[in-house]
Amino acid sequence: MEKVRLNNGMEMPCIGLGVFQVDGNTCEKAVSNALALGYRHIDSAHHYFNEAAVGKAVRESSAARSEIWVTSKIWPNEYEDETAVDRMLDRFGLDYLDLVILHQQVGSYLAGYHNLEKAYEAGKIRAIGLSNFESERLEDVLSHAEVKPQILQVECHPYFQQWDLQKRIAPYGMKMECWYPLGHGDAGLLNEPVLVSIAEKYHKSTAQIILKWHVIEGRIPLPKSTNPVHQKENIDLFDFTLTDGEIQQIEALDCGRRYWHMTLAQQEEKFLNIHLD
Ligand code: A2P
What we know:
NAD(P)_OxRdtase_dom_sf; oxidoreductase activity, acting on the CH-OH group of donors, NAD or NADP as acceptor; about 280 residues; single chain; 8-stranded parallel β-sheet; alpha/beta; NADP; oxidoreductase; NADP_OxRdtase_dom
């Protein structure tokens, strides 16, 4: 699979498997199947409650650990805890993680970021980043960071393209990872006439057209699927490209429609009340 070069020289496979709300056995099977199909990038989180299942599938894969990119996310109640990354490694049963990011922009996020920097310097994690930091708290972290983050992970799809954020992170050489890259599988998006006509031209599905568009524009999509047919389709993107005109047609779908939204105050109220062990 093609790779994306990060601002610290690390190379990340350009598509990852998302496993949000996929638990236990289903998750282990989905990850094992994905690795057998050629995926080399899995995106988990403490708050997904499936790190152990992901770790098991990675350890039991015939692919070398060094070939697989494993990401996880720290929940806010652990931001001040210097042992959070060690305990995360224990849950995965792995010696290091490729990327660890702060899951939400609430709580003691500067302390959380500092703890990530320490784990990075100690070689326990190969890259660090942020997820869902869309307020001025993004610049707050950037202005205090000794190690600039490599990644910002946010909702991003043709209906919500995040160009403002893409411009804000570009000067730091940060890359954007996309959750809900397929608009959460929304049939309205997957049946958009513009996408259908481009898909017909290349004998691909509209999901493949959307994923290819993300990859061409330098973002890293994290499509979620437990369906082996969809999983296979979602990495079968490397035998075609899109024209500039087609890319512009997809960019014209941007309409500010997001599938998940909470104000900062709502995020604080909700997320600070969730305590993970
Ligand atoms: P499934 O698990 O049955 O494949 P997103 O990554 O944007 O959150 O989208 C995930 C949703 O889209 C899931 O419901 C997933 O269902 C569906 N999905 C994933 N890949 C495809 C695909 N290639 N074609 C159609 N639907 C897909």
